Amino acid sequence: MTVEAGIAAAEQIIASGAPRRIFCINDQLATGVLEGLSRHGISAPRDARVIGYGDLGLDGRHALSTIGQPKQSMGLDAVELLLDELDDGSHHVHSAKVITPQLIARESTASIGSR
Questions:
Q1: In a domain, 21, yes or no
Q2: What CATH number is associated with residue 31?
Q3: Strand pairing of 49-53 and 102-104?
Q4: I need a surface site. Which of 4, 71, 100, 101 has the fewest CB within 10 A?
Q5: How far is CA 87 from CA 76, 84, 94, in A?
Q6: Is the preceding omega at residue 70 within 30 degrees of 0, hence cis?
Q7: Is 87 within a domain?
């Protein structure tokens, strides 16, 4: 799940002739995939489309499409759960909250959101 692993994954994708619609588990991996493809003259989105997860803003060379998470509200929710646990830990009730991610389409996928 690192940039280096993404570069290695790009080598495998190129060697296998696999489809070039690539969804990565995180932005670091996606950044490496883009770098690895670029080393072989394969550009996104012309020849391949790549999307990451996390919207970490790591990618300076490519405009990486990603799945973004509402980081601020996730942090606020986590603090609220922690404070509730500290205030009344003996009566802890498990809870779940659904977080809705958002597609942030950038250059690495071109018009994927409009299809």
A1: yes
A2: 3.40.50.2300
A3: unpaired
A4: 100
A5: 16, 5, 15
A6: no
A7: no
Tokens of 99: 């977080």
Query: What would the pLDDT profile of 78-113 be if each residue is shown by its tens digit?
Result: 898 888 888 876 777 777 788 889 998 888 887 654
Please tell me the predicted confidence (pLDDT) of residue 113: 47
Percentages helix, strand, coil for the chain, rounded to the nearest 5?
Answer: 45, 15, 40
User: Please, which residues have CB within 8 angstroms of residue 70's CB and are 6 or more apart in sequence?
Assistant: 99, 100, 102
**Domain of residue 40, residue span:** 3-69+101-114
Residue in the block written with tokens 């991996």: 29
Q: For 18-65, how does the pLDDT look when each residue is reduced to its tens digit (9 = 90+)?
A: 778 999 999 999 999 999 999 999 988 889 999 999 988 765 556 889
Residue 62: inside a domain, yes or no? yes
- Total structural domains within the chain: 1
- Give me the half-sphere count of Cα atoms (radius 13 Å) on the Cβ side of residue 23: 5
74 falls within a domain: no
